Each structure stands twice: as C-alpha cells, then as structure tokens.
Automatic annotation (TrEMBL):
CDD domains listed in its UniProt record: GLECT
Organism superkingdom: Eukaryota
GO molecular function: carbohydrate binding; galactoside binding
Keyword Hydrolase included in the entry's annotation: no
Protein's UniProt name: Galectin
Domain Galectin: 61-200, 257-398
Signal peptide residues on this chain, from the entry's feature table: 1-22
Length: 429
C-alpha cells in the first residue's frame, strides 16, 4: 500500500489553487517578475492590520483613473500631514467604488509609518498580502505638521516612487499595471490634491532637490592650504575623526552635484569626496553620469558601489565592490570583487577618483584601490550622484592633482622582494 505524505500533498494543492485562482500562468510570470510572490501571500501581521483598520476609517480622497494606464503615466500627490499623524496610505486599486475595499486587488500600497520612520510597499491579491518591502537609499522625509509631495511613475517594469523631489524606491510589478482603475488616499492627512499627466523624465525636481554646483579647487589654492595631496587626505581624516566634528552639518543625501564648464573632468583632474560611513551600513554608491534623471536611465561613465558584508568570518572593512558603466541601454564592463578597504562602519574616509589618460583610478584614504577603463570620456559627465549609508561633508573637483601613478615593479625587483621574504625567517632563527 502506498504511503502518502498528506501534509506535503496539502501544501502542493494549496499552492496550485493559489496559482489557478490568480490565473498566474508562466507567460504572465515572465512578464511580471514580481508575480512569483503570489505563492508567498499571507494574512497581515498585527501592526499592519492595526494601521489598515485605522486608516480605513479615514478615507481622504478617492480618485478614478481616466487616462489609459501606460508607461510614462505620472501621479502627483500633495497634502498636509496632521500633527497627530501615525500612518497614511496610498492605494492603487484594480476596482473602484468600495468603501471597505476588502475585495479589491491592490497593485501597490504605499504606507507611511511615522512612528517607525519608514515607508512600506506591498500588493494585495484575493484578500492576501505579499512580502512587504521597506528598504530605501533615501532617509525618511516626512514630518508631522508639514506638507508632503509624492510622485509615482508607472513604467513597463515597475513603479518609481519619489518623495519631496527625491527618488525614494522602485517597486517591481506583481500584478498587471493595466488593471489600474482608481487611487485611494487614507489616513492622517488632509488637503489632498492629486494630479496625473504623462512625463518623459523622472523625477520632477523641487527647488531644494536641484543639483548644486561642485566647487573647483585649483593647484594654487591647494598650495595655499599648505598641501600635498597625501597630506591633505591625512589632514582631512584627522579632522573628521575628531569628536568636535561629529555634529558638523553634512550635505543632504542623495547628493546631486553639477559639474560646470570650468570644472569638467579631464585628464589630470580628480573628484575628492569626504565623509563618514554610517554605523550599520548596507551600501552606498557614486555615479558619474550624463543627466540628472532616474528614468529613463542616463548614460553612466563610472559607477562605484561598496556593499558591506555581514559574515562573521569577514574582516572589518571587507566589502563587495561593484564598478560598471551604462551605455546604449545596457550596463557594460561590470565587475564585482571582494576587496579589503579602509571603509569601516563609523569610520571617516576620503575617496579620490582621478582621471588618467585612459582610465579612472580610485583611491580610498591614500590607497589606490582599482582602475576602471573609460567606456565614455569623463568630459561628457555633468552630474555626480552620491547616495546610500554615509554622511557626506565635502565634494570638490581638483585640477592638476599630484596623485602619482603606481610604479610597476620590474621582474628583477619582484624577484628580489620574493627572495627577501624567504630569507627573513631564516635570519630570525
């Protein structure tokens, strides 16, 4: 007699029924990668359920989508956050007209939780919610008693979410965006205004989020400060590591710096970035790009991003370093490697990116880390984009830098070095 594993069979049947109910065929999943989360749907956790019930009692705005949902459709939300605000949500619905909306599928719910200082993203299908997303490069931007401004852009692959003029996160489609019929705003907000129109660029910049000019430091100015480049780096590190500097005002992130005509990057010039890694970092990034938009993706001459490791066996300062460029609609020359750097949680850093004749050379605290061959000439770059888990204090362009190219040792010098390393232990004996 066959021995059936009933719990396993029950689980398989439940999974298949979910797929059948939601009509998620293989072709559909290929078109919408986020749709695979249909197998992970669950009942809301206690905190989310509390906020859901609280917000449902305060429906502030219901908006029926008249335009055809297609890539480029942009929603702009503006309103006032109440002084007693705990939570508010924006729901993109597939079916409009229900007060409670228990049967509505939700393409995207953006939930702003002010006590916890984060913004959640999720979808609901057949009354069940998928895995919640709540991470972002951008720090929390919403404050009680102040107005807020959100832009949500619909694209073929995802929703782009901007808060107060800064790109906040993207949300990969889990359901077909063509199902969109209505938008609800619920919770502790007032004076809600919703606008829709089609755009060719994202995000819409507000006055405070426009790129700021990057100052230019000439060799003469550096000499007046007392200065060889190596000593300038050591002096900056000592200054940033002092206790007095802990509360020094920092530049807002994400940082968009504009390279003016007189400080464009050419051979011999360099970009110097001074800051501090946060205590519990995940990653940060530096991009040399042509254009300030997030969508469509601009051309990127150089992209550098350290991802900090969490393994117990990894040394402090070890990171996975990614570098690449974006040209003609695709990422090229992509390289990721595990490198031991002086970038440490809570530690100050000076990153210098020098333009050589055919490549970028990146220094971290006076140590040359790697070279990156040009995929696009640096003089085409007009925007420096810096974001992630750091505090940023200074970004300047230096001309006629004295960062020396590392001298390549001859075969004889390498042989002598190897001989000395082998001889030293014998001498010590």
């Amino acid at each position: 007699m066959l021995n059936f594993n009933l719990p396993l069979i029950t689980t398989i049947l439940k999974f298949l029924s979910i797929l059948l109910e939601s009509k998620m065929e293989t072709k559909f999943m290929g078109m919408y990668p986020g749709a695979c989360t249909v197998a992970l749907r669950r009942v809301m956790d206690a905190m989310s359920l509390f906020y859901e019930n609280r917000s449902a009692a305060h429906r502030r705005k219901h908006f029926k989508v008249i335009q055809c949902p297609r890539p480029g459709l942009c929603f702009v939300f503006h309103g006032m956050i109440l002084m007693a605000c705990e939570h508010f949500v924006i729901d993109f619905l597939t079916k409009q007209g229900s007060e409670i909306c228990e049967e509505c599928d939700v393409l995207l719910q953006i939930g702003s939780r002010l006590p916890q200082n984060y913004i959640t993203r999720n979808s609901r299908l057949k009354g069940k919610w998928g895995p919640e997303e709540n991470s972002s490069y951008l720090t929390f931007q919403l404050n009680r008693g102040k107005s807020f401004w959100m832009q949500i852009l619909l694209t073929e692959e995802c929703f782009f979410i901007s808060v107060n003029g800064y790109h906040f996160a993207k949300y990969i489609h889990r359901l077909p965006y063509r199902w969109l019929e209505a938008v609800d705003v619920l919770g502790d907000v007032s004076d809600i205004v919703i606008d829709t129109y089609y755009v060719s660029e994202y995000p819409i910049r507000l006055t405070h989020s426009l790129p700021q000019p990057i100052p230019h430091l000439t060799k003469l100015q550096r000499d007046e400060q007392n200065t060889e480049t190596e000593w300038l780096v050591l002096s900056s590190l000592a200054k940033m590591s002092s206790k007095k500097f802990l509360y020094h005002p920092s530049l807002p992130l994400p940082f968009y710096g504009k390279l003016l005509d007189e400080n464009v990057l050419i051979e011999g010039s360099a970009l110097r970035i001074e800051g501090r890694v946060r205590l519990m970092p995940q990653r940060f990034s530096i991009a040399f790009q042509k254009g300030q938009e997030i969508w469509p993706q601009p051309a990127v001459s150089f992209y550098f991003s350290p991802c900090f490791l969490r393994s117990r066996n990894d040394k402090i300062g070890t990171a996975i370093i990614t570098r690449r460029a974006y040209l003609n609609g695709e990422w090229v020359n992509c390289t990721s490697s595990r490198l031991n750097t002086s970038l440490r949680p809570g530690g100050a850093f000076v990153i210098v990116i020098v333009c050589r004749d055919s490549y970028y050379e990146l220094f971290v605290n006076n140590r040359s880390l790697f070279h990156f061959k040009y995929q696009m000439k640096p003089d085409c770059v007009d925007i420096v984009n810096i974001r992630g888990d750091i505090k940023l204090w200074e970004v300047v362009v230096e001309s006629n830098t004295s960062y020396k190219k590392p001298r390549v040792r001859t075969a004889m010098e390498r042989a002598i070095g190897a001989w000395k390393r082998s001889e030293i232990p014998q001498l010590q004996i």
